[in-house]
Automatic annotation (TrEMBL):
Residues 733-758 are annotated as: Disordered. Pfam families: GerE, HTH_77, TPR_12. Residues 738-747 have a biased composition (Low complexity). The lineage of its organism: Bacteria, Bacillati, Actinomycetota, Actinomycetes, Streptosporangiales. This is HTH luxR-type domain-containing protein. PANTHER family: HTH-TYPE TRANSCRIPTIONAL REGULATOR RV0890C-RELATED, REGULATOR-RELATED. It comes from Actinomadura macrotermitis. One of its GO terms (biological process) is regulation of DNA-templated transcription.
C-alpha cells in the first residue's frame, strides 16, 4: 500500500504520508551509493523496497533536480517485444530517437556523463532486460548511479545486493500507530500493537493494511483475526497499484513469477517453522506416486532460487547448519497452495516423521545411550531451540489426527531438552493430552512415556506428581523389558521420596535402580543414581558418604562426555562445601558449574546454582554480591514458572533483607515464600530456615506484628513478591509511602496467623535442652515428663525443621533458641 504519487515527468514520487523507521538503512544506503554505482534493494513483496528507494534518492546529498529519474516497471509487460525495460526508461526520459536506434544508446545519450541517479522500480519480471540495460548505461555514463528494487537480484557485473529487512519491533509499532491515527484520530497504543507487529513479521504492507482496519476493529480483534490474514488484510488504498491493495495480491505477484518446480517447493516448505537443507531433502523431494515435480538433486538450486526471489529468508547458522524460514504471511499463502494441490496430508506426515526421527536420535545422544562428545551434545541442545516450532507443529498434527503413539514417543524423546530449557510446564501439557488418549497403547510406548512424564514433573519441582507418574511407569516398563526407562522411573521415585523426607524408601528405589541399570548403555542411569544417592546422604547429614557419591557421579558423567550430568554433581558438591563452611570451595564449584549450564542454556539449574552462590555470598558477608546473584536467580526462576524455585529464591532474599537490617521485609518475603511452597506442595526442610529468620524479627518487632506481616506476605501474588524482592536495598518495606508500598496489600482485619512452621513452646524448650547435650532421659528428668513424650517431641522437631539428626537440632538451637530468656 505504497503512499506515493509518481509524477509523469520521471521525477521522484511525492510521499503522501509520513516515512516511518529505517533511518539507519537510509544512512547506510546513502553512504553505499557514495562509493558504488549499482545497488539493488531486494525483498519480499510489501517489504517497503520502493518507499525506501525513494527516501534514499531524496536523501543523497548530491542528487540534483532534473538529474534524478524514477522509472516504475511494474506495468511493463515482458511479452517478448524487444527491450521493454529500455523502452520504458527511454519514454520516462523523453528519448524518442531515430528508427532502429538502440534504446540503451539513446538513453545513455540523454543521461550524459555528469552525475545522475536512475531509480528502476519493480524489476523482478524484467530482470534480464534490466541487467542488460543497467550494464550498458553504466558503461556509457561515468557519472551515473543506479538504484534498483526487485524481488530478486539482477545479477549484473558490479551489482551490490541490499536485502531489505522487515521493520524491527519498535519501527513496526511506530508505523502501525502512525497509520492507525490517520484513520482513527486519538488511537491509543496497547500491548496488542506489538503482538500484531510480531505476527506480521514487521512487513510494512501488512501493517498498513491491518492499521486500516482500526476504523471498525480494536487492535485486539485484529490480532485475534490474523489466523485468516488474507481476508482481514484485503482493504487497501484504491489509489495504490493493484498488487499492493491486498496482502494476497502482493504475494500473488511473486508467485506468478515462479516456475512449476519452484511453486511446488514453496508450498511444501509451508509445513516447516524453519528448516535446514537436509530437512528439505528429507521431506520435500518426490516419493513414489504420492508426490511429483521435485527431484532430490534439484532441491538446492530450487531453494537458492526462492532465496533469490525473496520468498525464503536465510537465517543464521545453528549447530553448524544454515537455517531458512518463510515470513508468516508467505507461509500462510503457501499452506493454502499446499492444500489446493492435494499434498498437505502426505507432506505433513513426512514432516512429523522427520521431527520424530531426529528427536529420538537426539534423545539417545543426550542420555548417552550412544557415544558422543560434549560439544556434539551442546550442538544438539542448540538445534533443539531452533526446532521448537517444528516440534509444536508435529505434536499438533499428531494430536489432531489421533496419532497417539507418535505423540507420546516425541514427548518422551525430547524430555531432557524441555527440562534443561525450563519449559517443562508447556511440554507436560502436551504429554498429558497424549496420555489422556493413550488407552490401548502398547507397554513399550506407555511405560517410557510415563517415566518421561515423571521426569518432566521432577524438572518442574512437582515431586508429588513425579512420584505418581514414575510409580505408574514401572509395570509397563518391566513388561516391555525396557530396563533403561525402568531405571529412569526408579531414580525419579527416589528423588521424589528424598524431597518428601522418606529417606528409607528413596534408598530402596535406588538399590532397585542400580540392579536394573547394570547393563550396557546404562552409564547415564548409573551415574545419575550415584548423584541422587549423594543428595540423599546430604539430606541425611551423612556428609562423607555424600561427598564420595557425588564425586563418583561426577567422574562417571565426565567419562561418558556428559557435562550436564557432571553439573548436577558439581552443584551438589557446592552445597556440601557450603554446609561444611568451606566457602572458598563452594565458590569454586559454582564457578565451575555455571559455564557448563550456560553452554546449554539450562535456565532452571542456573537459577538454583545462583541461589546457592547467593547463600555463599551471604555467609561470607558480601551483601552486594549476594543481591546480584539472588536477583538473577529470582528472575530466571520467575521466567521458568517453577514456583518452588521462586519460593526458595524468596527465602534467601528474606535472609538477605534480615542482614541488611530490614526485619519487616524479611517477614513479608518469608510469608510469601511459604505461601508459594504451600501452593507447590510444601516439603519438609523449611522450618529451620524460617525459624532462623523469624526469631530475630520476633524480638525486634513483637509476635503480633510478625504475624501481621506474615499474613500480608502470604497474600502477595507471586509477581508482586518478586518485584518487592528486586526493588533494591533501602527502598522501603512497603508499609508506607514509596515504590514498594504499591505491591503490599493493606493489613488484614481478621486475626493474624502464626507461621505454620513455628515450634510450640514445649518443642522450643526441648530443642534448647538438646543443644545443652541432654539425652531423652535427661530431658524427661529436667521437665518431669516421660521419655516417650520427649521422643515424640524430638521427632516433631526434626520433621518441622527438616533435620535428620539431634546434632543438627543442637547446632541450630544454639543460635536461635538456647539464648532466649526463660520465664
Amino acid at each position: 500500500m505504497t503512499s506515493l504519487n509518481p509524477p509523469s515527468d520521471g521525477g521522484l514520487p511525492v510521499e503522501t504520508d509520513a516515512f516511518v523507521g529505517r533511518e539507519r538503512d537510509v544512512t547506510d544506503l546513502c553512504r553505499l551509493l557514495g562509493t558504488l554505482r549499482a545497488v539493488t534493494l531486494c525483498g519480499a513483496g510489501g517489504i517497503g523496497k520502493t518507499r525506501l528507494a525513494v527516501r534514499v534518492a531524496r536523501s543523497l546529498p548530491d542528487a540534483r533536480p532534473g538529474r534524478v529519474w524514477f522509472v516504475d516497471l511494474a506495468g511493463v509487460a515482458g511479452d517478448g517485444t524487444p527491450d521493454p525495460a529500455a523502452r520504458r526508461v527511454a519514454a520516462v526520459l523523453g528519448v524518442t530517437g531515430g528508427e532502429g536506434r538502440p534504446s540503451a544508446e539513446g538513453v545513455a545519450g540523454a543521461i550524459g556523463t555528469g552525475p545522475a541517479l536512475l531509480v528502476l522500480d519493480n524489476c523482478e519480471h524484467l530482470a534480464e532486460g534490466c541487467a542488460e540495460l543497467a550494464g550498458a548505461l553504466l558503461a556509457r555514463c561515468p557519472g551515473l548511479r543506479i538504484l534498483a528494487t526487485s524481488r530478486e537480484p539482477l545479477r549484473m557485473p558490479g551489482e551490490t545486493v541490499w536485502r531489505v529487512p522487515p521493520l524491527d519491533p519498535d519501527e513496526a509499532t511506530a508505523l502501525f500507530v502512525e497509520r492507525a491515527r490517520a484513520v482513527r484520530p486519538g488511537f491509543a497504543v496497547t500491548e496488542a500493537v506489538a503482538e500484531v507487529g510480531r505476527a506480521l513479521d514487521g512487513l510494512p504492507l501488512a501493517l498498513e493494511l491491518a492499521a486500516a482496519r482500526v476504523r471498525v476493529l480494536s487492535v485486539e480483534q485484529i490480532a485475534q483475526r490474523l489466523g485468516d490474514r488474507f481476508r482481514l488484510l484485503s482493504a487497501g488504498d484504491r489509489t495504490a497499484p493493484p498488487r499492493q491493495r491486498t496482502l494476497r495480491a502482493a504475494i500473488d505477484w511473486s508467485h506468478e513469477l515462479l516456475g512449476d518446480a519452484e511453486r511446488a517447493l514453496l508450498r511444501r516448505l509451508s509445513v516447516f517453522a524453519g528448516w535446514t537443507l537436509g530437512q528439505v531433502e528429507q521431506v520435500c523431494a518426490d516419493d513414489g506416486p504420492y508426490l511429483a515435480g521435485l527431484a532430490g538433486e534439484d532441491l538446492l538450486d530450487l531453494l537458492t532460487a526462492l532465496v533469490d526471489k525473496s520468498l525464503v529468508v536465510v537465517g543464521g547458522e545453528v549447530a553448524g547448519e544454515t537455517r531458512f524460514r518463510l515470513l508468516e504471511s508467505i507461509r500462510g499463502y503457501a499452506a493454502e497452495r499446499l492444500e489446493a494441490a492435494g499434498e498437505a496430508e502426505e507432506i505433513r506426515v513426512r514432516h512429523r516423521d522427520a521431527v520424530l526421527e531426529a528427536a529420538e536420535r537426539d534423545g539417545e545422544v543426550v542420555f548417552a545411550e550412544c557415544p558422543a562428545s560434549w560439544p556434539e551434545r551442546v550442538r544438539l541442545f542448540q538445534r533443539h531451540d531452533a526446532e521448537t516450532g517444528n516440534v509444536r507443529a508435529a505434536l499438533a498434527w499428531s494430536l489432531e489426527h489421533g496419532d497417539v503413539e507418535e505423540g507420546l514417543r516425541l514427548c518422551t524423546a525430547l524430555r531432557a531438552c524441555w527440562i534443561v530449557r525450563g519449559r517443562a510446564a508447556e511440554w507436560a501439557g502436551w504429554a498429558d493430552r497424549f496420555l489422556d488418549a493413550a488407552g490401548g497403547q502398547p507397554a513399550y510406548v506407555l511405560g517410557p512415556a510415563l517415566a518421561g512424564r515423571a521426569q518432566l514433573a521432577a524438572g518442574a519441582r512437582d515431586f508429588a506428581r513425579a512420584a505418581a507418574f514414575a510409580d505408574r511407569a514401572l509395570e509397563p516398563c518391566r513388561k516391555a523389558g525396557d530396563d533403561f526407562m525402568a531405571a529412569v522411573a526408579l531414580i525419579t521415585l527416589a528423588e521424589a521420596h528424598t524431597h518428601a523426607g522418606r529417606f528409607a524408601e528413596a534408598a530402596a528405589r535406588l538399590d532397585e535402580a542400580d540392579a536394573v541399570a547394570a547393563g550396557e548403555g546404562q552409564e547415564w542411569n548409573r551415574a545419575h543414581a550415584m548423584i541422587v544417592r549423594g543428595r540423599l546422604r546430604l539430606r541425611q547429614d551423612r556428609q562423607r558418604e555424600a561427598r564420595e557419591l557425588l564425586e563418583s557421579g561426577l567422574h562417571a558423567m565426565r567419562a561418558i562426555g556428559q557435562e550436564w550430568g557432571a553439573a548436577l554433581a558439581l552443584a551438589g558438591l557446592a552445597r556440601l562445601a557450603r554446609l561444611r563452611g568451606d566457602l572458598a570451595a563452594a565458590r569454586a564449584r559454582h564457578d565451575e558449574v555455571l559455564p557448563i549450564l550456560a553452554e546449554i542454556g539450562a535456565r532452571p539449574e542456573t537459577a538454583r546454582v545462583l541461589a546457592g552462590a547467593g547463600r555463599v555470598a551471604l555467609a561470607a558477608g558480601d551483601l552486594p554480591a549476594a543481591r546480584r546473584a539472588l536477583a538473577e536467580s529470582l528472575e530466571l526462576s520467575q521466567a521458568c514458572g517453577i514456583r518452588l524455585d521462586v519460593a526458595r529464591a524468596l527465602e534467601v532474599f528474606a535472609d538477605l533483607l534480615a542482614r541488611e537490617g530490614d526485619p519487616r521485609g524479611t517477614v513479608l518475603l518469608a510469608g510469601a515464600a511459604a505461601a508459594l511452597r504451600d501452593d507447590a506442595g510444601r516439603g519438609p526442610g523449611t522450618g529451620a530456615r524460617l525459624e532462623t529468620l523469624l526469631e530475630p524479627a520476633r524480638r525486634a518487632l513483637g509476635e503480633p506484628l510478625v504475624a501481621q506481616l506474615w499474613a500480608q506476605g502470604g497474600a502477595l501474588p507471586q509477581g508482586d513478591a518478586v518485584a518487592y524482592a528486586l526493588r533494591g536495598p533501602g527502598a522501603g518495606t512497603g508499609t508506607g509511602p514509596g515504590p514498594a508500598a504499591a505491591v503490599v496489600p493493606a493489613p488484614r482485619t481478621e486475626e493474624p496467623v502464626t507461621p505454620p512452621s513455628t515450634l510450640t513452646a514445649r518443642e522450643r524448650e526441648i530443642a534448647a535442652l538438646v543443644a545443652r547435650g541432654l539425652s531423652n532421659r535427661g530431658i524427661a528428668d529436667e521437665l518431669v515428663i516421660s521419655p516417650a513424650t520427649v521422643a515424640r517431641h524430638v521427632t516433631n522437631i526434626l520433621t518441622k525443621l527438616g533435620f535428620a539428626s539431634r546434632a543438627q537440632v543442637a547446632a541450630w538451637a544454639v543460635d536461635t533458641v538456647a539464648d532466649e530468656p526463660r520465664g
